[in-house]
Design goal:
Elements: H1 5-8, H2 11-43, H3 45-81, H4 85-119, H5 125-139, H6 142-157, H7 161-184, H8 194-218, H9 234-265, H10 270-282, H11 284-306, H12 310-337, H13 339-344, H14 350-363, H15 371-382, H16 386-399, H17 401-412, H18 414-444
Helix pairs in contact: 2-3, 2-7, 2-11, 3-4, 3-5, 3-6, 3-9, 3-10, 3-11, 4-5, 4-6, 5-8, 6-7, 6-8, 7-8, 9-10, 9-16, 9-17, 10-14, 11-12, 11-15, 12-15, 14-18, 15-16, 15-18, 16-18, 17-18
């Protein structure tokens, strides 16, 4: 089978070859996020604040799609490594069908709850108006998002990272081009303001799906989406959701974190809420790059675990950890040295600039140490241990940071929230290292199932 390179090629070149296309696509996605926010900030600071409040809703849709895609990826990569392509295709096919169902359910749920959700954090009529308009349009594209990510994970499970990269980049490029055209108008196209930004985002998310389907139909692949009676079975559902649900919760946890922190920061000022939103736009450059590495190692881990190459799984983790730490170190240097210009991309308010510079420098203290937990979640998902991965993410995004942020904010004000980031990353990293030594290296890989 053509996937045997995953257990034969040297680990470092393999991880780089699998991760680099995803890192590039993640960097382009991060750039799109920055550019998209830059244009929206030109509308008004209220529009930018609205975008910050809608972000958790958008992230929820992506979380369900990506999380379930990881579950399907794991369910397909393991039988590929074990030499059972029919079972792998069953997992891929059932996963695509369920992704359509998830997209429809998310559309109805999020459209119904979005106005209520936004009203929890602001009474400003302008912010509510912008947020409601933007959310209504972007949520309508939930089905193309979930199905597009389903195909993305299908290609990743086969090790075809270049296809995933090209598809994601094409969507981002279309989005960036459409943003100024639809927001400010061009020729016969009227200026649509924040509605234009929403349409640009939605159209940009349809483009990758079109590319994936075109490539899939043009070139046969080991994983095929086809329907047969054998794929509709309980054990396969359980395998898909055993990793998909924890992975989806992993991806959704940042939304819960932002929602909780918005609630704390709203008690200080609207500028604090805006700063948190700006930070999450900026940190995509760092954490999406790390996520590209994690996406690259998942199929390697799953394939080699299925093939019985347990030593290569450990080597893959060590290699991913080193690469992720390097990315985080670069991100720390940039955030420390260029905090002012970075925050200045989105606001000219002196108050917001001062708050933003302080926040970015404090939060970046935890970047490097977070590489331990970030890398391990990818390995655990590749091994099919979604519950362990979820445990780490719960520590990072909920169990430690939220109560810590609340307590510190009572002592140090808004700055206490920023300090909670790096402290919780340090605590979670220590727990992740112990988990790997005892449960993974000394357990799962020492006595594999």
């Amino acid at each position: 089978m053509e996937q045997t390179f995953m257990k034969e090629r040297r680990i470092l070149p393999l991880v780089i070859s699998m991760s680099l296309p995803m890192v590039v696509s993640m960097l382009v996605t991060a750039l799109y996020n920055i550019v998209d926010s830059y244009f929206i900030a030109k509308i008004s600071e209220e529009a930018m604040t609205a975008l910050s409040l809608v972000y958790p809703i958008q992230n929820l849709v992506n979380a369900v799609a990506v999380g379930f895609g990881v579950g399907r990826n794991t369910a397909a990569a393991y039988p590929l490594g074990a030499g059972a392509p029919e079972r792998a295709s069953d997992a891929a096919s059932l996963g695509v069908c369920l992704s359509v169902v998830h997209g429809l359910a998310l559309t109805g749920l999020c459209e119904a709850l979005a106005p209520w959700f936004l009203g929890l954090f602001t009474a400003d009529a302008a912010v509510l108006g912008y947020g409601t308009e933007y959310a209504a349009i972007v949520i309508a594209f939930s089905v193309p998002i979930t199905v597009g990510i389903a195909f993305e994970k299908l290609f990743q499970a086969e090790g075809k990272m270049v296809v995933a990269m090209a598809s994601m980049i094409s969507g981002c490029v279309v989005n960036v081009i459409l943003d100024p055209v639809l927001i400010f108008g061009l020729g016969p196209i009227p200026a649509m303001g924040i509605r234009g930004a929403a349409w640009a985002t939605g159209i940009g998310q349809v483009v990758p799906l079109v590319v994936y389907v075109a490539v899939y139909l043009a070139k046969p692949a080991p994983l095929r989406v086809r329907f047969r009676r054998e794929m509709w079975n309980g054990p396969l559902y359980r395998r898909l959701y055993a990793v998909g649900i924890p992975a989806g919760l992993n991806m959704a946890l940042p939304s819960l974190l932002i929602t909780a922190l918005n609630g704390i920061l709203a008690g200080f000022s609207a500028a604090c809420v805006l700063v948190l939103g700006i930070y999450y736009k900026l940190q995509t450059f760092i954490y999406l790059t790390a996520n590209g590495i994690v996406q690259g190692i998942r199929p390697i881990v799953g394939y080699n675990y299925g093939a019985g190459e347990y030593g290569r799984v450990h080597q893959t983790y060590c290699t991913a950890l080193a690469l992720t730490a390097a990315v985080m170190a670069v991100g720390t240097v940039i955030c420390m040295g260029a905090a002012g210009p970075l925050i200045g991309l989105f606001t000219q308010s002196p108050e917001t600039l001062a708050l933003g510079k302080t926040a970015l420098r404090i939060i970046s203290l935890g970047f490097v140490v977070s590489s331990l937990s970030v890398s391990l979640t990818g390995v655990l998902e590749g091994l099919g241990r979604g519950s362990l991965s979820l445990g780490i993410s719960l520590m990072r995004y909920l169990v430690v940071i939220v109560p810590l942020a609340w307590v510190l904010s009572r002592v140090f004000g808004a700055a206490g929230v920023w300090h909670a980031f790096w402290i919780s990353e340090a605590i979670t990293a220590a727990a992740a290292w112990l988990l790997y030594r005892k449960k993974v290296k000394g357990g799962i890989l020492a006595q594999p199932l």
